[in-house]
Amino acid sequence: MTKPTSKIKITLDSGVSAEAQAPIIVSASRSTDIPAFYADWFFERLKRGYSAWTNPFNGITSYVSYSNTRFIVFWSKNPRPLLNHLDYLFERNIGCYIQYTLNDYEQEGLEKGVPPVWQRIETFKMLVNKLGKGRVIWRFDPMIITDKISIEDLLRKVQNIGDQLRDYTEKLVFSFADIISYHKVKANLEKNGINYIEWDEAMMNEFAEKLSVMNRERGWNFQLATCGEKIDIDTYGIKHNRCIDDDLMIRFAYRDKELMDFLKVEVNVVQPSAPSMFEEFEDQPLIPDGAIMLTPYTYVVKQKKNKDKGQRQYCGCIISKDIGQYNTCPHLCEYCYANTSKETALENWERYNKNRHFDIIMGQ
Prior knowledge:
By secondary structure, the protein is an alpha/beta fold. It has helices at 34-37, 39-48, 86-92, 117-131, 151-165, 183-191, 201-217, 246-253, 257-262, 342-354; strands at residues 7-11, 17-21, 25-28, 50-54, 61-65, 71-76, 95-101, 136-143, 145-146, 171-176, 196-197, 223-226, 238-240, 265-269, 292-295, 298-302, 321-322. Helices cover 29% and strands 21% of the residues.
């Protein structure tokens, strides 16, 4: 079985041999919006078999091979360009789902680089029609409080989008903007003149309770979950999320033996026996506690926890390889955590546009 950190030899575009990581699960990406701006680049690199990645902490460039890739998690605020490429994943039998951040900060101008809300909702529905319900996950992330956005304002925004996505998503994932802990976010908001308000526990509980009531009263029945949050609000039916989620991968790709072996998942198919007239159902197979039912006669048992220990303390994600780069997202959201500055992001975007075929996002 391929290990998460397994290395293989690859041949670069230049003809030179190099060592590369060969991940089973790829994250594309927490660091930039690959679907919105770099979809063409990513799928070309997928076809070529590898891409390059520069470590943001030490500046060392390394390589990622896609020879073993079985599943991709996409993250985006505008994943419409994926519609032109998803058929290639089907051809390669590579599974995927999309973490789709669909916020509404239009009036406040916090996300000036994204399309209008109505168009992003339309994109959401198009992707669901292409991929199937459950593979496009709605995120309203982060929940930001400012001198112009109250808790009630946020709830109205969520209600507007939620009513339109009622039949198109199963889950709503959100987080509370933790501004003080993220120096880049704090600096960007202050530089852009945004008077933010930090969430406290009482405010979080108020929001969670009202969101839970809204979910029930409006008949959405979404799974509600927080991303990377310490606070426990399970009282309101709100769970801690795994955004890179082995349960979802099992659900959508349980027939992929290589992926299931990597996740240490045992897939079991049982055949019901016909009851006799004297011993009705006595010989029916027993399903183990903790098993995940996939069909009436198929269940899986997870034999290990796949949590990624390299993520934040309260992140539930499993092991994957993120192939994005910081300082490359031209959405230019006012609260961005991935860009040091708008100027740097735009400079790298311009570099990319001068050489879209280079093996690293930022171009040569």
